[in-house]
Specification:
By secondary structure, this protein is an alpha+beta fold. The protein is 22% helix and 28% strand. It comes from Chryseobacterium panacisoli.
């Protein structure tokens, strides 16, 4: 039952706490796009806790970005893809949604698990945390990172990431095919080759452990969990997705040189890739 609650807490927003790398870098909650001066970003937040029993405290933290200048409903539905219940994209509407989610979460812990939650006899702090972070907005490509975490008992908490890039010029979520025509099997071969280029920071008694030493898969999938900058395309994998939990989250770069000859013409021009 505890594992079930953890899964629900995570999937409610793909909730997961920002890992150490992202805590250092921090979210970029401003636009860098000089061509869309009217672009506005705001946010709504909720941060609350309640005592379930003398031994159990539960916390709920969440943040949603607000885009008052974006009016395309299909685009907004895609931006809030993990929150299908959202129908009102205004600041007030999103705040009301978060308040309801918080109350529903507290109620689920209190009511759905009352048969066994009283068995928690030592002090515990359970939580659900989810955040939308605007990482960049350049060349009309907006990168949002969705990060969430949760803990409802067990050996450790769980966390994960979802990266999405939105093409504001064409009002849609960017797909891998909009960037490159390279077949996925060839991209996957590059991912395997580049697995150790950005180390996860995992250490053991002998020092730093390579990502490749912790893989649980024979093939690294070219997933939709990607973003990019002026140098590389990056694929981001949450714990357990391709490696052991101890590896943390893993980011693998694929350079534009690796994709040379396969880049979409419009994407290449907008990103000024030579």
């Amino acid at each position: 039952m505890k594992n079930t609650i953890a899964v629900i807490a995570l999937s409610s927003f793909l909730a997961v706490t920002a890992c150490k790398k992202n805590e250092k870098a921090g979210p970029v909650e401003k636009t860098e796009n000089k061509t869309t001066e009217e672009f506005v970003v705001d946010s709504v937040k909720v941060n609350d806790s309640t005592k379930i029993t003398d031994s159990l405290k539960v916390s709920y933290t969440s943040k949603l970005l607000v885009f008052p200048t974006l009016k395309d409903k299909k685009l907004l539905d895609s931006i809030y893809f993990q929150n299908e219940k959202i129908k009102d994209f205004s600041k007030a509407g999103l705040q009301a949604y978060l308040d309801k989610e918080k109350n529903d979460y507290f109620s689920s812990i209190k009511n759905d698990n009352k048969d066994w939650v009283s068995d928690v006899t030592y002090a515990q702090n359970w939580y659900s945390s989810s955040h939308m972070n605007l990482m960049s907005n350049a060349n009309n490509y907006m990168h949002i990172q969705y990060v969430g975490s949760g803990y409802e008992g067990g050996a450790h908490d769980n966390y994960g990431f979802s990266e999405r890039v939105f093409d504001l010029k064409n009002s849609k979520k960017l797909e891998l095919k909009d960037i490159t025509s390279m077949p996925k099997n060839k991209i996957e071969a590059i991912l395997m080759k580049n697995i150790d280029k950005i180390n996860s920071g995992t250490m053991d008694g002998d020092g730093e452990v390579k990502n490749s030493e912790m893989l649980l898969v024979e093939k690294i999938p070219a997933s939709d969990n990607f973003y990019f900058d002026d140098k590389n395309l990056y694929f981001h994998y949450s714990p357990y997705e391709i490696a052991a939990f101890a590896a943390g989250d893993i980011t693998i770069p694929v350079s534009w040189e690796d994709l040379k000859g396969t880049l979409n013409a419009e994407f290449k021009e907008r990103m000024k890739i030579k």
